[in-house]
Amino acid sequence: MGRIALVYGLVAGTVITVITYSTLPIWQEDMNFELGEILGYLGMFVSLISIFVGIKSLRDKQLGGYISFKQAFVQGLYITLVASSIYVVGWEIYFNTSAGDFMEQYSTYIIDEARANGATEEEITSKTEEMESMSELYEIAPIRWGMTLLEILPVGVIISLISALILKRDNSSS
């Protein structure tokens, strides 16, 4: 994996965990999950800028100013995996210490939103059953880890792809 991936992944993972914990009071008091989602993805984007910086560091400091798209993309994925792992651990700690009722609150929010948007009783019943099923799955730790991983991993893959496209520099013309 390499030192650069580890260092920049640790930085990204730490930053997103700090951002997540520090923004919780902003949206959690009134359970505004919409605001929480916006702040969460904004925090992910900010923290995952380290993917770009890490790839650039590899290119400029270890590879003589050149990096292929594949090398850059793989480096970005390694940084993403480290950062995502820290994000999952951070959420797991929070969930087990402070948010044991998270799915209950989230389910209530989703059902209330459906009602507010004019859902029929049949749609509300269906949404309620769906949320009950999801809540049961969320109690299974490995499934919860996977769900949490799927929040950040796609963002990291997209940023890795964009960073690799921007930073690739071929040395074939040298």
Indicate the topology:
Layout (H helix, E strand, L loop, with lengths): L2 H26 L4 H15 L1 H14 L6 H30 L3 H15 L4 H18 L2 H27 L7
Written account of the structure:
- 83% of the residues lie in helices and 0% in strands.
- By secondary structure, the chain is mostly helical.
- The chain has one domain (3-167).
Provide the number of structural domains. 1
Form type: elongated
Low-confidence sequence ranges: none
Number of strands: 0
Count up the helices.
7
Residue share in helices?
over 70%
Binned strand content: under 5%
Give, in order, the helices and strands.
HHHHHHH
Q: Quick one: biggest sheet?
A: none
Category by helix and strand content: mainly alpha
Structural Rg: 19 Å
Instruction: Summarize model confidence as the mean pLDDT.
Output: 90
Distance between the termini: 28 Å
Summarize the structure.
83% of the residues lie in helices and 0% in strands. The protein has helices at 3-28, 33-47, 49-62, 69-98, 102-116, 121-138, 141-167.
What brief labels describe this structure?
174 residues; single chain; mainly alpha
